[in-house]
Design a protein that fits this description.
Blueprint lengths: L1 H32 L15 H8 L5 E7 L8 H19 L5 E6 L6 H9 L3 E3 L6 E10 L2 E5 L10 H13 L5 E5 L11 H7 L8 H9 L1 E5 L10 E7 L6 H12 L3 E5 L8 E2 L7 E2 L6 H7 L1 E3 L4 E4 L4 E3 L8 E3 L2 E4 L17 E4 L4 E3 L5 E8 L4 E4 L1 H6 L1 H6 L9 E8 L14 H10 L19 E6 L7 H4 E6 L2 E6 L3 H13 L5 H4 L9 H37 L11 H68 L1
Parallel strand pairs: 1-2, 6-7, 6-8, 8-9, 9-22
Antiparallel strand pairs: 1-4, 3-4, 4-5, 10-11, 12-18, 13-20, 14-15, 16-17, 19-21, 21-22, 23-24
Helix pairs in contact: 7-14, 16-17
């Protein structure tokens, strides 16, 4: 018996020792090979096909200088971990570059040659904690005559690290940047305020929108005037944002640009928050709608300019006014996986897009065109008035009636496009007619001869039913990181914009890299359950709200009645009626509060159950499996 116990103990000890040796050996081999196993669902820590394609294009030596103050005494642990991640990622880049990527690691000590070289490369030392030393953590990539620097690699951009490196490498390898034209009346390029206005209103100059600054890193960006009668031939992609009151002549210019093979990205809007009506500076209101009606009609589509879409499944609780309680805002659409086309290369890794007060596209594409819906609402949606959507989100929620329709928010059209102006260039408006007549005095029968009627090959157009999604307010968070401007994406708006432009500009290698920057995991099932809970209470809430409104109206009528010269004294009947409706109003408001409280409790209970299941579910399953295994072993032992 003792020998048996001794054998069991001996074999157990040897088994543990053998396992220990195997684990250590595997770690040593993997470390030497710089191999990692990525167990994340979306392979966040695996090089994307786009990055591998860029690395595969390197046919001549490229030098990467990695500056890191590794011998510094006081380095925050977060920086050490991040620097190790950068070094590991560079090693993976080298593996896929067929030996053409040479990586040099330099330690810029104070007053050293490495520090001088870092400064020449444009890499700056940063102070990462109060009272700390200046630490270098940056990269310079060069291949004569090109050189691109990443001056700092802050930890809060770690999930964008692969993209930042891949883009810098792509910039070094490319010789000519594609030209992207931007046509818009909005202050996308920034706006300088007159000194007198800055003093009176306390305003500041507006900087260019972040998305535009990001595009300038990869493309040559050219501003196109809203009244342009021709789009320059060197422009490859035209980005039209909020073409409010656009002239037919400008639509004709866009039409002919497409006929010549240019690609169009158009952001339209039924209510643009960025287009603020400045007639009353004390109460600025959103601007009017924008459309490309002539072009869309030729393509078989219609854009709804008089309504915005509300989607209860995409809504969230937000604080609309300062000091107020958070409330559901169904017209600020947080479009998640269920509304994003994951089959499309530009969006397959985008997890969330925010579209405020968006419009929808309807219709059937014209013959020869294929439509791909990139973004859409859930079926629990409804078209509502823009003014009411902005002023009273709670009213939209109370009166909500689902149209049981999934609306298209962003679509791509592909195929051979036919001109929207078969009769030639349209007549200019009266104020421009004389000017244009002097330029072009052709006979009526010759007017359409210079108009291109159809694209020679397949082309593509992207249509998006919102403009505010591009603004900084809804796409990024800008922070001051010890004097350096750091941009952190709030959602997938910025990555999606860049993906679309890059796809249309012809370079698709970066598309799968960038969208790794924001990978929220929204609880889509929970949101659907919340929407169902809302729906159960909406009918009762609407009924009680109607009773309260009717009581208020009746009270106003009664209190407004006068009897002869009686201005302040009411009759007994009037007072009784008023008291009656006051009680009715109080009862209705009381019941309304109770119902809304029950709704809040229902949603909170749902959230609590979900948290308990998510947190306790896996430990419970592991414990149950362990108990079951122990019972099985016990039964086997008894049988022996």
């Amino acid at each position: 018996m003792k020998d048996k116990k001794l054998d069991t103990l001996l074999f157990s000890t040897i088994g543990v020792a053998v396992m220990f040796v195997i684990v250590v050996a595997i770690n040593l081999i993997a470390s030497a090979m710089n191999t990692r196993v990525d167990l994340t669902e979306n392979k966040v820590y695996t090089l994307s096909p786009g990055t591998k394609a860029i690395l595969g294009k390197i046919d001549a030596p490229v030098e990467v200088r990695f500056y890191y103050s590794q011998s510094q005494v006081r380095i925050p642990e977060q920086i050490k971990t991040h620097a190790k991640h950068v070094e590991d990622l560079l090693a993976e880049f080298r593996q896929y570059s067929h030996g053409n990527l040479e990586i040099k690691k330099l330690d810029p000590q104070p007053d050293s040659e490495a520090e001088d070289l870092a400064n020449l490369d444009g890499v700056d030392g940063q102070v990462y904690e109060a009272g700390g030393d200046k630490i270098y953590l940056g990269i310079a990539i060069s291949q004569d005559p090109q050189k691109v620097a990443l001056p700092a690699l802050p930890p809060n951009r770690e999930r964008l690290l692969e993209y930042d490196l891949a883009r810098a490498l792509s910039q070094v390898l490319s010789t000519n940047k594609p030209v992207v034209g931007v046509m818009t009346p909005l202050p996308v390029f920034g706006m300088k305020m007159p000194p007198q206005m800055r003093m009176q209103m306390g305003g500041q100059n507006q900087e260019p929108w972040v998305f535009l600054s990001e595009l300038k890193r990869d493309f040559e960006v050219k501003q196109v005037q809203m009244d342009a009668d021709k789009i320059d031939d060197d422009i490859k992609v035209l980005l039209v944002i909020h073409p409010k009151e656009i002239k037919d002549t400008a639509q004709y210019a866009i039409d002919q640009f497409i006929m010549r093979g240019g690609k169009l990205i158009a952001c339209l809007d039924p209510m643009s928050l960025a287009d603020v009506n400045r007639q009353n500076p004390m109460m600025p209101m959103p601007g009017g709608a924008s459309n490309l009606d002539k072009l869309l009609k030729a393509w078989g589509l219609t854009f709804e300019t008089t309504k915005v879409v509300a989607d209860m499944n995409s809504a969230r609780k937000l604080t609309v006014r300062q000091g107020a309680q958070p409330e559901i805002v169904p017209t600020l659409l947080f479009v998640t996986d269920t509304g994003i086309s994951k089959d499309d290369v530009v969006a397959n890794q985008i997890d969330e897009v925010l579209l405020p007060f968006a419009g929808v596209f309807t219709g059937t594409p014209a013959s020869g065109l294929k439509q791909t819906v990139l973004l859409k609402t859930s079926k629990n949606s409804q078209l509502v008035e823009p003014f009411m959507a902005q002023m009273s989100p709670s009213k939209i929620v109370d009166d909500f009636k689902s149209a049981d329709t999934s609306y298209a928010l962003a679509v791509r059209l592909e195929g051979k496009f036919k001109t929207a102006f078969p009769d030639g260039k349209p007549e200019a408006k009266s104020e421009d007619k004389d000017k244009d007549d002097k330029k072009d005095e052709k006979k009526p029968e010759d007017k359409g001869k210079d108009t291109l009627k159809e694209t020679k090959t397949d082309n593509a157009v992207m249509l998006i039913g919102d403009t505010d999604w591009l603004s900084d307010q809804f796409s990024v968070q800008v922070q001051n990181f010890f004097g350096q401007k750091i941009v952190q994406p709030r959602n997938g708006n910025l990555p999606l914009t860049q993906n679309i432009v890059e796809q249309f500009a012809g370079d698709q290698n970066l598309i799968g890299v960038r969208s790794r920057g924001t990978l929220n995991r929204p609880f889509t099932v929970v949101k659907e359950m919340q929407a169902q809970a809302n729906a159960r209470f909406q009918q009762e809430i609407g009924k009680l709200q109607k009773e309260a409104d009717e009581a208020n109206q009746k009270l106003s009528e009664l209190q407004g009645k006068k009897e002869g010269n009686q201005r302040f004294v009411m009759s007994k009947e009037q007072q009784e009626e008023i008291e009656k409706f006051k009680k009715k109003r109080a009862d209705a408001n009381k019941h309304l509060k109770l119902v809304r409280r029950d709704l809040a409790k229902d949603i909170e209970s749902l959230e609590l159950r979900t948290k308990v299941i998510n947190i306790a579910g896996m430990p419970f399953l592991v414990a149950a499996a362990g108990i079951a295994l122990a019972l099985v072993r016990k039964q086997k032992t008894k049988a022996q």
